What we know:
Protein name: Polysaccharide deacetylase family protein
Keywords: Signal
Strand content: 5-15%
Radius of gyration: 17 Å
Subcellular location: Secreted
Order of helices and strands: EHEHEHEHEHEHEEHH
Distance between the termini: 20 Å
CATH superfamily: Glycoside hydrolase/deacetylase
Shape: globular
Low-confidence stretches: 266-274
InterPro entries: Glyco_hydro/deAcase_b/a-brl, NODB_dom, Polysacch_Deacetylase
CATH topology: TIM Barrel
CATH architecture: Alpha-Beta Barrel
Organism: Streptomyces halobius
Amino acid sequence: MSAVPVFLYHSVSDDPAAWIAPYAVTPRVFAEQLDRIADAGLTVVPLRRLVDAMRGGPPLPARCAVLTFDDGFADFYSAVTPLLTDRSLPATVFVTTGAVPAPDGRPEGSLLPPARMLSWRQIATLDALGFDIGGHSATHAQLDTLPARQAWHEIVDNKRQLEDALGHRVHAFAYPHGYSSAAVRRAVQKAGWTSGCAIRNAFSAVTDEPLRIARLLVRADTSPERFTRWTLGMGAPAAPLPESLQTKGWRLYRRARARLGHPVDGPPGPGAMP
């Protein structure tokens, strides 16, 4: 089966918040990466089309890619949207609802450090433009370290808030930091999400797991050569992949730290491990 690069972006900005800067790209670099995707002959398809194919639906184009954006940074509206609309490219934006500013301009409550995030009006506009709005939990908590009831509320409240704001169902979820577990994935499915995106730094495929979709994390230091190799289906393993012992050990460590009241903080990093 053909490898499908599902690209994961965060902020696209010339001046990102310092805490997300290692995982941000400039608009110029992002435009160049879109050109590399086109030059490689890849068809950018919506995430839902990949998920449908995983579930036995219509086949994908012979060579395709998916664009996803985590957290809900405001620069998606100002910097990314013009570049995608000019090229008629689809994308999924995963929103941490607690980071969306309230009417008084303050975030309603998230674990993300301060940054300019999408407003509810901008999210509704993006939805009207045809971009897929997905969920990224209520507060950006590490779901696999939480008690089951708390994780459930993170997952369900996120869905309810988005559906109340948009007036229709939302289907795609992305795990904060890429962290999940079998229990978290079952909760995501039970809550009504039909897909769940991880990180894993691997290619996806129609044989991938709809609730643990592999993505390639695009960082500030992702070289043009590496990105080009990804567009050619090289330079990373292909899903499905078993969960590594390293990932299992890291989860146990994070859970222990959380129980002691000293959670491991920080932007996505170790969650990128397969």
